[in-house]
Amino acid sequence: MEIWVNPKCSKCRTAVSLLEAEGADYTVRRYLEDVPSEAEIRAVLERLGLEPWEITRTQEPEARELGVGGWPKEATARDRWVAALARHPKLIQRPIITADDGTAVVGRSEAAVREALGRR
Length: 120
Hints:
Belongs to the ArsC family. This is Arsenate reductase family protein. It comes from Streptomyces lonarensis. The chain is of the alpha+beta class. The chain folds into two domains: 1-31 and 96-120, no CATH class; 35-93, no CATH class. The protein is 40% helix and 12% strand. The protein has helices at residues 10-21, 38-48, 61-66, 78-87, 110-118; strands spanning 2-5, 27-30, 96-98, 104-106. A four-stranded mixed sheet has the order 2-1-3-4, sandwiched between helices. A hairpin with a 5-residue loop joins strand 3 and strand 4 (104-106). Helix 1 (10-21) packs across helix 5 (110-118). The chain is globular. The mean pLDDT is 95.
């Protein structure tokens, strides 16, 4: 199990605390320092069953500067979104937990973190 975190994020800290409390075997990836490649982002999206615009933090200043709010949310624009997430990792929703069974969740709630724990 791996969790992508921003240590400044309270949701990330809460998720890590819950993983610790449950004795989970996991690794932490500080994705702002160890930036995921486009291929890694595509793989996580597949595991999540989501599109890149669904994990994009569109209210971040960088998102507004890029104008992502006006980008099309369709298959033909998918590569553009993935490239933006790889170049601007602050835009990636957090935390993302990849479970050992090949799935992943965006762990913003206790229920989502517990869902990932159930998939170990």
